[in-house]
Structure to design on (183 residues):
């Protein structure tokens, strides 16, 4: 025992007072973030989640609130209602939201890859066209080449709608969807 600390201070140190105030704040903020995610969720996805009835009611009230300040207060109240329940009541909801985020990230990455391939095709990259034909021999080559030519003309003509540009993306998306169903 150090000379500067009394025996009573050491006894206080050994007792468990539960989570620190900082930890309580972190947990409260985590519930507030979850409440915001639930309010922002599409109604069809929210309906699939298993939530307590009073939490659903407060989510509906929060969505209907239009004033910024009132909405912020209502969101805080929703978080307070959610804190009445244990973490295990929302574990499935958190897991569902986490899985959906990962799925969304994967879909976004796939779209970016398709956009990059489309841009390579339009940028007069014959290697990209050959690569695509080699990966997907079933593709209509003549139609694809025609779309690429049209997209180049659209790109160089101001004010012309990018119809072929969009069609190339849709064709690439269809090819990827056909590939994922086969594999």
């Amino acid at each position: 025992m150090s000379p500067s600390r009394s025996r009573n201070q050491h006894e206080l140190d050994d007792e468990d007072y539960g989570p620190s105030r900082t930890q309580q704040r972190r947990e409260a903020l985590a519930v507030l973030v979850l409440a915001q995610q639930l309010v922002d969720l599409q109604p069809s996805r929210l309906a699939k989640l298993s939530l307590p009835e009073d939490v659903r009611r407060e989510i509906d009230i929060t969505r209907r609130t239009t004033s910024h300040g009132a909405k912020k207060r209502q969101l805080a109240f929703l978080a307070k209602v959610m804190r009445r329940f244990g973490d295990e009541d929302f574990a499935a909801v958190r897991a569902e939201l986490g899985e959906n985020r990962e799925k969304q990230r994967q879909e976004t990455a796939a779209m970016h890859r398709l956009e990059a391939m489309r841009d390579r095709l339009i940028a007069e990259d014959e290697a990209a066209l050959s690569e695509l034909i080699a990966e997907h021999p079933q593709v209509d080559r003549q139609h694809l080449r025609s779309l690429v030519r049209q997209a180049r003309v659209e790109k160089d003509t101001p004010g012309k709608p990018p119809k072929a540009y969009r069609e190339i993306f849709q064709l690439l998306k269809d090819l990827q969807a056909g590939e994922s169903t086969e594999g």
Q: What stands out?
A: DSSP finds nine helices and no strands in the chain.
